[in-house]
Amino acid sequence: MNLEQEGWATVPACLPQATLHALGASAFSESDAGRRCLLDQEAVNQTARALRAKLVDAGILPVTAVAIQAIAFDKNPSVNWKVPWHQDLMFPFAGRTTAPGYELPTVKAGVHYARPPLEVLEELLAVRLHLDECDATNGPLRVAAGSHRHGILKSELIPDILGKSREITCLAKTGDALLMKPLLLHASSPATSPGHRRVLHYVFHSGRPLPEPWHRSI
Fold first, then answer.
1. Using 50, 70 and 90 to split pLDDT, how confident is the model at 196?
2. pLDDT tens for each residue of 81-100
3. E strand or H helix at 48, and its extent?
4. Less Cβ crowding at N or C end of the chain, within 10 Å?
5. Ramachandran region of residue 169, left (φ > 0), alpha (ψ -120 to 50) or beta?
6. How many other β-carbons are positioned within 10 Å of the β-carbon of residue 150?
7. Residues 132, 23 contacting (CB under 8 angstroms)
8. Rounded CA gap, 31 and 20, in Å?
């Protein structure tokens, strides 16, 4: 695994089956493509702590790391979609950001979001916990390996970076955790044989103090 160079890796989360069932029952909705800001849900919160402990033990996260975001995605026969190539740049904060470098403030569903500075984005790690098997037919994530090392990309530069990167389709088994740098270019296609592709997408920060507090930090 070369997470720092490639920007992604897949590892077994080794969570109990009961935990996956609890997450499936509480975090997902058949009618929603995605549900955001779920860290207040008990099952989601407890799983964030369990994942953090495992990743700290593995030397992937520092002991100071905190979960700052949890989003539930499910491609299914009712809700199926395409995502173009992009980076994850906007994250939830406790209030409207005013500190230098925290840009593009906006509000989504009553929660303040902004793009933090590059050095903060580089301290984030997404952990995509798969509750279902993800094969080539149900819209798996595709990544451009190494593209996270180019910083924040303007949209017109994305085709050039894609042309210089290896595109990888990230398949997963139930219970796998896909680790991903949010600056990594990634995309997905609609499922060609939609069933369920439930993913609980956590984001962890290194935990160093910031001038702007996160919306949640556990």
1. confident
2. 889 999 999 999 999 999 99
3. helix 42-57
4. N
5. beta
6. 18
7. no
8. 20
Average pLDDT over residues 62-91: 93
145, amino acid identity: A
Domains and CATH numbers, the chain: 3-88+126-205 (2.60.120.620)
Residue 200, class by beta-carbon neighbours within 10 Å (0-12 exposed, 13-18 middle, 19+ buried)?
Answer: buried
Q: Which helix (H) or strand (E) holds 17?
A: helix 17-27
Q: Locate tokens 């149900």: which residue?
A: 138
Tell me the backbone φ, ψ of residue 207, rounded to 5 degrees: 100, 0
CA–CA gap between residue 167 and residue 142 (Å, rounded): 7
The two tokens of residue 163 are 């042309």
How many whole angstroms separate alpha carbon 177 and alpha carbon 131?
Answer: 9
92 beta partners: 113
* pLDDT at residue 79 greater than cutoff 70: yes
Q: pLDDT of 137-187, one tens digit each?
A: 989 999 999 999 999 999 999 999 999 999 999 999 999 999 999 999 999
